[in-house]
Amino acid sequence: ADIREMSQPPDAPFLPDVVAAIDACAKPVVAAIAGAALGGGCEIALACDLRLGGPKALVGLTETRLGLIPGAGGTQRLPRLVGIAQAIALICEGRVLKAGDALALGLLDGVVEGDLLAEAIARAPDVPKRRLSALPVPARDMEAEEAAIARVRKGAKGVPAIEEAIRVIRAAGEGEFASGLALERAAFLALRESAEARALRHLFFAEREAGKVPGLEGVAPRPVEAVAVIGAGTMGAGIAVALADAGLAVTLVERDAGAAAAGLQRVADLYARQVKSGRLTQAQGAERLARVTSTADWGRLAAADLVVEAAFEDLAVKADIFRRLDAVAKPGAVLATNTSYLDLAAIAAATSRPQDVVGLHFFAPANVMKLLEVVRPALAAPDVIATALALAKKMGKQPVVAGNCDGFIGNRIYALYRRHAEVLVEDGASPQEVDAALEAYGFAMGLFAVSDLSGLDIAYAMRKRRAATRDPAERYVAIADRLVDQGRLGRKTGAGWYAYDAGGGKSADPVVEALIAEARAEKAITPRAFSAGQIQRRLLAVMANEGAKALAEGIALRASDIDLAFVHGYGFPRTEGGPMWAAD
């Protein structure tokens, strides 16, 4: 489907009419699927009497990714082919099936290795009519249906289309095909006009725009086959896994043999966890782990086409690493830093080749999180940025190009968002009220719970670094600093903004309440009440205002890039489209 048409008045011929005409045709109709038949394309194929695919065929009903449901019979024909439980899983998860998997499930009747069109034409005279609309729904397995529903609801993340899809798919087993079709169409038309669907369409286009960077037209990326990661801590190990998953040979470099061995063990543990959860087979895990080696020998860096530094977030430490790296890396190697706040120009200045230096800001856990901020220092060569974007695509990451400033796009805005949440607390809201308002808005976790999870010492170090340059007229809330001074660093110490029990359950803490009351008293603040709506609008306004400044300064290329950064990196609800879209 052409997603651009979704926001416009429908234009004839209407897809349901096309599908109905194929279904009603007296002659058998064969679908020959060479590439992607997704959404409406898949619905056309389901109306045919025989479906043949080439080896690169992809089929799926992916409408729920856009806040919709299939609107041309997909929710009624697919259950007649694969059963209701399987249809719920395929449609609600928006799953895209490769040719072999589609054949196994019965969505394809055959996979043709040779000339697909010739084979389809050769088979056509002997194809009988087989209308899915006339088939009964296979015997229902209520236990399997309930399990599928529970699974998709867990991943629904507030998308109303999921509940509608479940309702309409189950209707296929409860009435005539025509009544199910009418139910589907009414639900599709209502969803298409919903705010959630408009927000998801916005993100769909934003993802495709993000890789288009002015000045890179026709610029070829540098070849990257061998990569190295300096620093094999939690972040470095996650980056190594992300690179190995993309099929690259990875060398982990650490300060000594013990640290190198520990780093490789972290990578092995990450793969073991994926094998245990069933995301990878034992053989796949072993194959990917075999792509990673670890060493304390910096000389091994000379073979790398791209090096990612993932050391401690300290400018002196990183500058020293880049000085050493400059001496061993081969000419033309891309030198990347995983810094989340620091000045890229200062890091690049430690080398004799600033044109080869770029920021690759991964988000933790690096092998899971989709966002990759590609930070572009002023002296970076165009083909270095092109290489970073090509690498992001290879890893399946969502790149967002950012200019060089303190915190780039994401952390620059997030720091202000967190500061204003603390202002709300000092003015009268409790941390629990702020978190509850954010969760009601659609965040999986509130801001203070997230701070406890990541560790209060991280933001504390950033505030100390900025202290000398802070505007003395700026309002400063010291509550978080006092929590750190008391050793309350979050979950890892069993106490932060919340208290944590042995099982990890959180609760409000009288110690924190006393600290907040003390801070208010020092500034003679009379606490006032805030509604959930006031908290949500205040924090959204803060994000949108700082985003507008980042745009005006050229740090972000477009407003939609800011939306992508927050949806993919900071848990902003997809159904709200990101802070800039939501504010508009």
UniProtKB/TrEMBL annotation:
Residues 227-404 form the 3-hydroxyacyl-CoA dehydrogenase NAD binding domain. It is found in: Peroxisome. It holds the Pfam family 3HCDH_N. SUPFAM superfamilies: 6-phosphogluconate dehydrogenase C-terminal domain-like, ClpP/crotonase, NAD(P)-binding Rossmann-fold domains. It comes from the Bacteria. InterPro entries: 3-OHacyl-CoA_DH_NAD-bd (IPR006176), 3HC_DH_C (IPR006108), 6-PGluconate_DH-like_C_sf (IPR008927), ClpP/crotonase-like_dom_sf (IPR029045), Enoyl-CoA_hyd/isom_CS (IPR018376), Enoyl-CoA_hydra/iso (IPR001753), NAD(P)-bd_dom_sf (IPR036291). Residues 407-500 form the 3-hydroxyacyl-CoA dehydrogenase C-terminal domain. Pathway: Lipid metabolism; fatty acid beta-oxidation. Keywords: Fatty acid metabolism, Isomerase, Lipid degradation, Lipid metabolism, Lyase, Multifunctional enzyme, NAD, Oxidoreductase, Peroxisome. It catalyses: a (3S)-3-hydroxyacyl-CoA + NAD(+) = a 3-oxoacyl-CoA + NADH + H(+). This is 3-hydroxyacyl-CoA dehydrogenase NAD-binding domain-containing protein. It comes from Xanthobacter oligotrophicus.
